[in-house]
Design goal:
Strand content: under 5%
Number of helices: 8
Shape: extended
Oligomer: single chain
Distance between the termini: 65 Å
Order of helices and strands: HHHHHHHH
Bound molecules: heme C
Number of strands: 0
Structural class: mainly alpha
Radius of gyration: 23 Å
Amino acid sequence: MKKHSLLLPIILLFLNQSVSASDWRQAAKSNDKINNLVQVMPGASTLMLQMEERYRNLYWSAKQKKWEFAEYQIEEMQDLIQTLMITRPKRKKTALKFFQTAFKHFPVALKKQNWSYFENSFEYMRKQCMTCHVENDHAFIVLPKQPRIGNSLVLESQTQ
Ligand code: HEC
């Protein structure tokens, strides 16, 4: 009991401090808010983890003839690249080149809904991904032609 009575004031003091610590999202000056936001903007390493998921799921959605889902993956990949152009200006030039070239065969592939046309379009994109890795000093990041698995729940559903 004695131990408790000593600890309690200390705990209360700590609680009081953490509750009253100001929340920068409300209290900070605009400049500090902006600085914080800039610091937490997702960079290439974060965005690329999403990119690789989309890469897998794009491949497997086409393989399963889930063409709408494939199209959706492409749109999301385009969004990721556009985000990268904003959050990492030093990657902008190479990202823009990728954005303008890498996806160009997909519209026909999706229209034809043809696996071998799609496969060639996918391979074309894969090469552009890796070109950008080379241009950004990450040549060791090599992508498989045929990702082994997709990992979206949507790919597990039987209906199309
Ligand atoms: C603008 C250039 C650029 C483009 C385009 C690009 N990448 Fe990347 N990628 C990078 C950079 C830079 C890194 C390293 C991230 C870092 O360390 O900041 C990276 C890392 C990766 C990684 C490693 C992720 C990890 O941390 O384990 C994968 C996987 C990846 N990219 C996949 C892709 C795929 C798939 C595409 C194409 C659909 C692609 N990338 C297109 C620049 C690019």
